[in-house]
């Protein structure tokens, strides 16, 4: 790819995006060196990664897990084990690292993502919640420090690929107005319940919600896909990343997940990005940008694709999408609260204390009670996110599972 080795930190290395990233970089030993891996509590997963890939540093956010990992790696030379959230953020800013893959799930990934951006790194952003909670701040920080953020989320990566690339532009692409773009369209699979009778949504089990029809992902994003909050978070992510308004970002249901995004231009052209539903493609694109890398993903055989469907989303079946758009209109504190309430509700559903069909109601209730503001500091946004978690937890306790 180039003659300088990129030294990589993978934040969230034990997860689905982390695993796909390890797969891609292992295919290019001359281009990438794995410097740092981080995880939360998955000691066995981290041990496997350390033995297979020999990073210089392994950080566990949970101190007890870090101690357990250090014990397990006593016989392995050259891996420094560190512990705690502050070490995760410090590892993201370490001068020994060039490229940070931000793949922690949820708002827990915000501090380390911001640390990487503040340090001017190349940041491969999978952690969409960082932009939902504090996107304006993250993007403004990148403009100030020269950090190059590349979108890994498949739809945003697809949009990025359909825009005129500008390696000299602050965010790597021409501005939408400058490029003649009128609309971005994100595709959504519709998740596992696209056709299920809504009268049965109260009985949905966690394993059913996590059985995504086209992608293999972590549990939180899988549940978000099942409620379509994932697409709501992605509309916010797109507005913050590409610096546009909610009405410039459309959503269409595309059950095959082969077209990831479309970009419409003022001359009537629509460009689309297609590929197999495999995150190694957007990860390889972002790792190699502005060049291209082998990802291990085979090309689509377009003679065998069969039918490609595109349908409007059903707002009554998936109220979370509209909740996210409303929060986006209401401003930065509302999107922070949306995220906090959603994370609390999804955790409760996964933990068995909230019904699937009440996830949206918890979020709606929380947003109705919040203080909405557009101009907010990082501390305000983090406080707002926390307030929403607490409020949502109160709703969940009151409503129970019955
Ligand atoms: N999976 C996918 O295909 C896609 C994912 N994304 C986004 O990428 C991000 C990661 O998703 P995914 O890989 O599916 O998630 P996973 O649940 O598979 O992995 C999450 C990773 O984050 C770590 N982690 C969890 N909580 C914390 C915490 N409190 N502090 C530090 N680390 C933590 C986990 O460590 P441990 O294993 O120890 O718990 C794990 O390494 C999400 O924001 C998601 O929305 C975007 C597009 C596609
Ligand atoms: C792979 C990826 O980018 C996910 O965000 C995916 O889009 C989830 O599928 P849904 O389209 O069902 O939300
Ligand atoms: Mn996506």
Automatic annotation (TrEMBL):
It is an enzyme of class 1 (oxidoreductase). Its EC number is 1.1.1.267. Its cofactor is Mg(2+); Mn(2+). Residues 274-390 form the DXP reductoisomerase C-terminal domain. The keyword NADP applies. Gene3D superfamilies: 1.10.1740.10, NAD(P)-binding Rossmann-like Domain. This is 1-deoxy-D-xylulose 5-phosphate reductoisomerase. It comes from Spiribacter pallidus. The lineage of its organism: Bacteria, Pseudomonadati, Pseudomonadota, Gammaproteobacteria, Chromatiales. The gene is dxr.
